[in-house]
Amino acid sequence: MALAVDRHLAILAGISLSFVARQNNAPLPPGPVPLPLLGSVLSIDAYEPWLTYTEWGAVYGDLVFVRSLDEEMVVINSQHIAEALLDKRSRIYSDRPYLATLEPYGLSIDFGFIAYGDEWRLCRRLFHQTFRPESAAKFRPMQIKRAREIIVNLVDDPENYYDHFATFSLSVVMSTVYDYNISARDDPMVQTVIKALVPGLTVLSPERALMLKTFPFLLKVPDWCWGSSIKRSARGSTERINEMAEMPFRYVQQHMADGSSLAQSSMVAENLQRMETQEEAFKPAFENALKKAATTAIIASYETSAATLMIFFLAMVLYPEVQKRAQAEIDSVIGKERLPTFEDRASLPYIEAVLRETWRWQPAAPLGVAHAASSDDVYDGYFIPKGAIITYNTWGITRDEKRYPDASNFIPERFIDSDGALTSDDPAQYIFGLGRRACPGRYNADSSAWAAIATMLATLDISPAKDDQGKEISFTPEFIPGLVRYLTFFVSFCPLVTNSFVAPGFLRPSLAVFRPDLTFIQTLWIVGGLPSFEKKGQFAIRGRGDIAIDQVILASV
Ligand code: HEM
């Protein structure tokens, strides 16, 4: 009943907003001709909007103007223009689009989605101190240790590979931010995170964002009144998210108060020590920003890192010759007596090329995170209006056939020149976004992905599973759309019995709230038509030899 009411209100909201007339007559970038009221909303591929934007790029060029209902959007289809606007004019292009649901549901704790301003600046500065390249390097031994734990978990429980990738993402970030070691099963801190994010994010959707934007009074109606379900669910979500932010924070404070050596080198501990020397008046704002930066790290890293490892797994199954070549490089450079460490990285160019191709082939965030123009601008003769959503089509860049011939295939060799050295083209330069809002966790993300990929290649053979007759089970990879894109049949359904942060199946419809390029109509389409989660294919994982697996197990104890 509540859902039906919400949907009706959402439709009303959409219609009323679409009557808002645009006053500006200045020339805009070329783009599809909008329908009255609806704009181009019905022409955009609801599952994979980046495909539509890429097609429009071929027709209209690298800068495309799109109107969807009341929203104005500029799609950037080339790295060159992205650099020119997001980076060189970052003063104008560093804001985020307004999402009416963020604040009421407690999700403004994620500074990745808040407006460009002083609070964002402080959060980002705190975050950067821990995650900038020089500081991030000190976490590498921990990342290697965690990567080896993936192998132990995979050998122990190969079916739930997704959970092991999720546990890896979470264990790396919890160590970095709180110096907290998560336990293998039923960890209380992980349960708190799950409790906060599963229901918290599931109740969110662009429908509600649009509804609250149009009918903000819904947050004020008394509890007994019709339409109050939004207010109550918002309140519950905020409470759970606050607990998720507070619990690990208190853990660090307690260890510091006990004088324990634990938590001395984490992001939170280091900054709490710094805070001691600050003026009293500044301390509350500083502590608040620190909590935001810490919680953002958890939210931002978990999904992206796990999704990347799934893409790598898929590539190894579909391209066995790549897997063999990568293993041969490890065997010849490192041998079979020990496992890869970061000291080996420079001597393993093919592994590096595999990582680059993993970033490029199926980018985890195909449209990045939308920016917003904070003032009017003119670029290359085109007018970009203040408030326009600026969508950077990362996917389109990865599919540029001039730069990446045979772009839909996984070919690490494209990053190796004729002398066997790496080329200067590194997709990490664009898949993490650009400008002042570019991903500040990218060095950590890059090291985590390298550690996991190199360790898995050194120790495991990954192949398609076989049926009872010994025939390989064929499958067609399917993805769940969202801010982060996931393979469907990898998805495990039961996050609460393991340490995985939250199953992507639960998260998907809700995270769409952070995709302001998706309107509520598209979201209904997606939510109504999510592919089933039945496992359509399963992978076989085998150790590459007892020595390697033994080493992993010993090293991770
Ligand atoms: C596979 C890994 C990852 C990918 C592909 C990725 C990608 C991105 C992208 C595309 C953005 C938006 C950039 C923009 O607005 O232009 C972003 C933002 C962000 N990422 Fe990542 N990310 C990854 C991992 C991580 C990790 C591990 C962390 C933290 C440890 C992290 C923290 C953040 C934060 C805090 C923001 C918001 C920045 C801001 O708004 O100022 N990310 N990421």
TrEMBL record:
Cofactor(s) essential for the protein: heme
Family: Belongs to the cytochrome P450 family.
PROSITE patterns reported for this sequence: CYTOCHROME_P450
Native species: Suillus discolor
Pathway(s): Secondary metabolite biosynthesis
The keyword rRNA-binding is assigned to this record: no
Protein known as: Cytochrome P450
GO MF assignments: heme binding; iron ion binding; monooxygenase activity; oxidoreductase activity, acting on paired donors, with incorporation or reduction of molecular oxygen
